[in-house]
Design brief:
It comes from Mumia zhuanghuii. The protein is α/β, with parallel strands linked by helices and 262 residues long. The protein contains nine helices and twelve strands. The structure holds adenosine-5'-triphosphate.
Length: 262
């Protein structure tokens, strides 16, 4: 399968701080990746590179076959869906949910005078239904719960029919029910052969949706493990990544981790 995202020996520096240190990672068509690591590990930095929002200080990043630095990122960005806390902050609180999703077609946040086709509206409704939030279509973004907002943002990221969907901590701040609804929606997406390549950043193995195929673990800007979930998502790799002895359990494609007794 062709690479959709390829980081080759990527280092990112800001002042004296090394955010990513010689990272090499390839994501191929059809794959669904979860990126796990503790706070400050460099996960968001990796996703920002994949989203063409940041360039490496050293090394090469190739996104959808184009090398960053040698391509107009504004042509590339419509092919990438991206949700993060920073994207959420840019959405006007008074924006209608349908418009939050529709405006992604123009790469803007906040509807103004753009004209949308009936096809766009039915597409937006279809995606909102896929994410289980179709009933919220006439509500304003500011009145939604955190979990509802997260699902609307994923719908927005899917609106341009992207080839690569990047989700930075979509379950952060959700209660148990909200997390389970989201994991279930993402599990459905993961199993849909028409869905884009998925990369999901998380701190918690409990948030790994069933159907995800690969895991990348990162600590202090360095990759600690990467590969197919079945063989890579192990207690040993998690212990190295989170710097703590851990017990990992798997049941019906879902995972749970806790500290190992001393
Ligand atoms: N502009 C910057 N200048 C200096 N350090 C930075 C800058 N941006 C990020 N960092 C640092 O780089 C490290 C990696 O940040 P990043 O946001 O990628 O981590 P993360 O794994 O996503 O963390 P979290 O799970 O807490 O969101 C952190 O220690 C952060 O403080």
């Amino acid at each position: 399968m062709a690479p959709v995202l390829e980081l080759a020996d990527v280092t990112v520096r800001r002042g004296t701080h090394t955010l990513l240190d010689d990272v090499s990672w390839t994501v191929r068509e059809g794959e669904r990746w979860v990126v796990l690591g503790p706070n400050g590990a460099g996960k968001t930095t990796m996703l920002q590179i994949a989203a063409t929002q940041m360039h490496p200080s050293e090394g090469t990043a190739t996104v959808l076959g184009e090398i960053l630095g040698a391509v107009d990122v504004f042509e590339l960005r419509p092919r990438i869906g991206y949700t993060s806390a920073a994207v959420a902050e840019r959405i006007p609180r008074g924006e209608r949910v349908l418009d939050v999703v529709l405006t992604a077609s123009y790469g803007v946040t906040g509807r103004w005078r753009e004209e949308y086709e009936e096809f766009d509206e039915s597409q937006a409704l279809l995606i909102l239904r896929l994410m289980g939030v179709e009933h919220l279509v006439d509500r304003t973004f500011g009145t939604l719960s955190e979990g509802e907002r997260k699902r609307v943002l994923i719908a927005r990221a899917l609106m341009t029919d992207p080839e690569l969907l990047l989700l930075d901590e979509p379950a952060a701040g959700l209660d148990l029910g909200g997390r389970e609804d989201l994991v279930s929606n993402l599990g459905k997406l993961a199993r849909d052969p028409e869905a884009p390549v998925l990369v999901l950043v998380s701190h918690h193995v409990e948030e790994v949706p069933p159907g995800f195929t690969h895991v990348l673990m990162v600590r202090e800007g360095k990759i600690t493990a990467q590969g197919p979930i079945a063989e890579t998502l192990t207690a040993q790799n998690l212990a190295i990544t989170f710097h703590m002895p851990l017990i990992l359990e798997e049941r019906d494609g879902r995972y749970a981790a806790r500290r190992a007794p001393r």
